[in-house]
Structure formats: structure tokens, C-alpha cells
Amino acid sequence: MKIQRIEAIPYSIPYAHPLKFASGEVTDAEHVLVRIHSDDGHIGEADAPPRPYTYGETQDSIMSIIDKVFSPQLIGLDPLDRGKVHEVLDRTIHNQVAKGAIDIALWDLLGKALGTPVHKLLGGYADSMRVSHMLGFRPAEELLEEALRFGEDYGITTFKLKVGRRPLALDIEACHVLRAGLGDDVEIYLDANRGWTANEALEVLRRTEGLGLTKLEEPCDAKEAMSRRRLVEKSPIPIVGDESVPTAGDVSRELLAGGSNAICIKTARSGFTEAGQILGLCAGLGVDVTMGNQIDTQIGSLATVTFGAAHEATTRSAGELSNFLDMSDDLIAEPIRISGGRISVRNVPGVGAGIDEDKLARYRQN
Ligand code: MUC
Ligand code: MG
Predict the structure, then answer these.
(1) Which of 47, 125, 263, 265 has its CB surrounded by the most CB atoms within 10 Å?
(2) What local confidence, expressed as pLDDT, does residue 250 receive?
């Protein structure tokens, strides 16, 4: 089997409810669908969600690096020769989302060629994952109403609150309102997307003491190395590295520097292969992981479930899997269902995210 052709298809789908957070806002899913064709007729697919304000990759850069740099080197390789594929991808630093989508599309292709679900190839630990829902910037009472509705409609009992880059009092108020309204059995944690200084983070932790918040993600920029380390030492809850740790090398650096003591894994930027390396690193060091969401579509969310459900350590925490509910539509042929607060893996060959060709024709941009 040989890689015959790689397509990088740009598309855009508007959000019905845009998500706003400290480092940006997503109003349209301007993504790239990556399709890898093998010479024996299999097609592997994955979604590439650029987040320019965080990683610098754009829809154009993803198409360009795939078309001009990766495709010419990958065409003709056997998709089973993953070492050779990754030698090509690793030679070029950065461009994590483009590489992640190529990696996931190749796993999808392999699963289809082998007639096996990819969650089985990766580890086959569980059939589903618990869902955590992300709450963006909105007035505290609206956030509470949203969380209660998601609890009622989908059985979700874990919420990540977006905070940072706005008056601290607003964030602190939102924490208190959510805890009072949701009761003690619901998990709440925070993500500041680098919107605070380490000292501001310590102040928020002081002023939310007793609320049972379980973790704080990316409070400040990784370049605040000294104060991040002090924050980790003083914080009663884990400080999770997210956008500071897209690669296994970044994870090592950040954990060794003491700037984070828990790690967010996103398949959108690490693919399944590097996500596995990150997971192994964290398992070896006894560091907790959470499956994160890069404001993913249903195709991307299913990839996260496929990886997350395959391993024991990634199922301990609820995965962030519900951002797609804010989109007006999706390319997936068979929509994801959240039931009892969980999303199931798909027991079909590959990742299981079949594409609705009519929708692709409607939303594609070339
Ligand atoms: C998160 O966990 O930070 C926001 C931007 C992005 O790339 O991911 C999200 C959520
Ligand atoms: Mg984050």
C-alpha cells in the first residue's frame, strides 16, 4: 500500500454561538479537511483547526505546508511505515496542526485498510469518554444557566470556565455563582489562556479558596518561568500546561522547569502518535493528563474520543468534547450524540467520522 494523493480542502462553517476566551474568539470554523488516498482505494480523513492567535498556523499555512512541503515527501511511502512518515514530519518544526491532521488521517486510513477501529489499534481501553463542557466569556448568570441546561440536556457534570484578560472580579464572581448554583457534586476548573500574570493567578486562587476548583490551566505565558514555578509550588491545585506544550519536547521542558504539573493533550495539535508520546512521558512521571479541545468540529472531537478512550490515564478526567455543540453545522455524516454525559467511540474501521459529501460541497472554499 502506498500514499497516492493528499488533499487539503479549506472549508468554513459559521458558529451559532461563538466562543470567546482570553486569547481569542471563534466565530467561524475556517478549517482544513485533510484527505489521504492510498493506491488501493482507501481514504483516511482528519480535521485541521487552525488557531492563528495561539500557534500562528492559518487555514492558508496549513494548506500550503501540506501541498508544498509534506505531500511531495510523503507520496509513495507505505502508510504502515510510520517511522518514515514521522521522519518527514519531524524534519520541519512547528506546524503542529497540519502534522496532527496528517497523522490522524493516516491512522484512519490504516484502520480502514486493516478493517479495525482505530480506538482498538491505539489501546482499546474503554468504549466511551466522560464529557467536560467549556464555558466562554459571558455574564455569570448566563454561564450558570448554560451549565444547568447542559447538565439537564446531556448529563454533563464537569465544566471548564474560561477566565483571564478581564477584571479579576468578573472571573472570581463567575466561580462563586457557578459553585453556588451547581452544588458541590459538579466539577469546575479554570483556563486563563495566558490571560493573567502568575501573581494574579495566585490572587484568584486565594479569593476562590473553598470553592473546590480542581485545576487551573495555562494561567500565564510560559516565559514567566520563575513565577510559574512559584505558582506551581504554592497552588493547592494542579497547574495544567496547554498551549505551552504542543509537543512531547515542550512537555518535558515545562515539567522539568516546574512551570506545570499537569498536562492537556490535544489530538488536533499532536495527532495520535505524538499524543501517545506525551501520554507515555506523563505516565512515567506520574503526571495527570486531560484531553483538551482546540474548538474542534465533530470530526476532531471524535478523534479526541478515539485517542482518549483508548487509554486508562486519559479516561480518568472528563475530556473536553462538546465545543461542536456551538456550531451551526458540521461535515460529519452521522452526528455525535452525548448521552449520560458521555460520547462513545465508533466500532467501525478507522476513526469512524464519515463525511457528508453534500455538506462538504456546500461549505468548501475551493
Ligand atoms: C483551550 O483549552 O484553551 C481555545 C483556543 C484553543 O486552541 O483551544 C481552546 C480551548
Ligand atoms: Mg486551554
Answers:
(1) 47
(2) 97
